[in-house]
């Protein structure tokens, strides 16, 4: 029963990890934002934020099927995240909490949650993308001195990686294990550059798209904003999702 419940909901989770990768790249927000091609964007390097909240539009496609949804996210440096998926009527379908290496998936409507380390997630299928969340959010800060270039390098996880830059902005990354991620629709506010769109194509031939909407930075969150309330839920290990 629990497994079938997760199967019904899992398509939302597939989209969620695409949201999290963008967070480490958001540099300064709100106000009037003008989207520009990377080569036309004027920005200042070194800008950063301590926290972020935003509405998001999400889409998922794989193997002849697709789905879209919306919700909101919260992020606080260095590694706390919360993503909420809403129904068309505004009720909460699912919540995802990330704190360091710990992932917790909450389905309060059905009284269950799944919690554990990233390595407990399946290496293929609905939840496999979460395995690469730290790679996805490991984004080079904008650097106007870098201009246009393609770099073959070893990333901080010890994996060979190809990174593409335009006007000093990271446009894409590729690894054999994780797949390909693209960062687009860059905008600049108060000199800071950030992407409003992320498209992740996993090695498993799954595609995830995310658009930021009405973002706000340097938000002060409540102390418990990134801590799931599991007191009335049945909690299972992430391995039960396999």
Describe this structure in words.
The chain is mainly β and about 240 residues long. It has a single domain, classed as outer membrane lipoprotein receptor (LolB), chain A, CATH 2.50.20.10. Helices cover about 10% and strands about 45% of the residues. Strands 1, 2, 3, 4, 5, 6, 7, 8, 9, 10, 11, 12, 13 and 14 form a 14-stranded mixed β-sheet that branches. A hairpin with a 5-residue loop joins strand 8 and strand 9 (about 160-165). The radius of gyration is 18 Å and the shape is globular. The chain starts with a helix and ends in a 5-residue tail after the last strand. Residues about 1-30 have low confidence and may be disordered.
Roughly how many Å apart are the termini?
14 Å
Helix vs. strand class: mainly beta
Tally of helical runs: 2
Q: What's the CATH class, please?
A: Mainly Beta
Count of discrete structural domains = 1
- Report the CATH architecture: Clam
- What is the number of strand segments? 14
Helix fraction?
Answer: 10-25%
Within CATH, the superfamily carries the name: Lipoprotein localisation LolA/LolB/LppX
Q: Round the Cα radius of gyration to an integer and report it.
A: 18 Å
Helix-strand sequence: HEEEEEEEHEEEEEEE
Beta percentage is: over 45%
CATH fold category name: outer membrane lipoprotein receptor (LolB), chain A
Low-confidence blocks of residues:
1-32
Largest sheet: 14 strands, mixed
Mean residue pLDDT: 79
Q: Globular, elongated, flat, extended or rod-shaped: what is the shape?
A: globular
């Amino acid at each position: 029963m629990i497994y079938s419940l997760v199967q019904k909901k899992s398509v939302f989770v597939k989209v969620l990890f695409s949201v999290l990768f963008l967070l480490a790249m958001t540099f300064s927000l709100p106000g009037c934002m003008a989207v520009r091609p990377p080569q036309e964007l004027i920005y200042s390097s070194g800008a950063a934020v301590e926290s972020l909240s935003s509405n998001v539009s999400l889409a998922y496609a794989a193997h002849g099927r697709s789905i879209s949804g919306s919700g909101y996210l919260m992020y606080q440096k260095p590694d706390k995240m919360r993503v909420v998926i809403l129904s068309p009527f505004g009720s909460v379908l699912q919540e995802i909490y990330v704190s360091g290496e710990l992932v917790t998936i909450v389905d309060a409507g059905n009284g269950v949650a799944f919690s554990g380390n990233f390595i407990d997630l399946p290496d293929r299928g609905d939840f496999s993308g979460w395995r690469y969340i730290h790679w996805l959010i490991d984004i080079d800060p904008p650097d106007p001195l870098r201009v246009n270039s393609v770099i073959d390098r070893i990333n901080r996880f010890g994996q060979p990686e190809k990174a593409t830059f335009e006007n000093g902005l990271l446009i894409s990354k590729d690894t054999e294990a994780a797949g390909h991620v693209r960062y687009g629709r860059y905008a600049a506010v108060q000199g800071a550059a950030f992407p409003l769109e992320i498209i992740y194509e996993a090695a498993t031939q799954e595609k995830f798209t995310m658009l930021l909407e009405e973002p706000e930075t340097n938000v002060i969150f409540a102390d418990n904003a990134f801590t799931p309330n599991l007191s009335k839920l049945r909690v299972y290990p992430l391995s039960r999702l396999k």
